[in-house]
Amino acid sequence: MSDRLVDVRTPLAVSETVRIELGADGTMHVVTPNVTLHLDRERCEELATTLARSMLRLRKLDSARARPVLRVVVGDGAARAQDEPRGA
Question: Where are the domains of the chain?
Fold first, then answer.
């Protein structure tokens, strides 16, 4: 039997597929289905910030892609309704 203590982790945040835990030594454990990251607090903060920035950038890229606006056209070709905003 080892003299090494078991690492007791404190859950910090949990979602359906991801959880973040704080180890007794201060290590942040980012646990996903395919990979687990063991990071110090500074690297974990950097990862969270970088992920947030990438999601904002992705949202801008997605919204920049032109999608046709919905328009109701009746048989004579005249528009009978206002253009609907995207996402409506």
Answer: 1-41
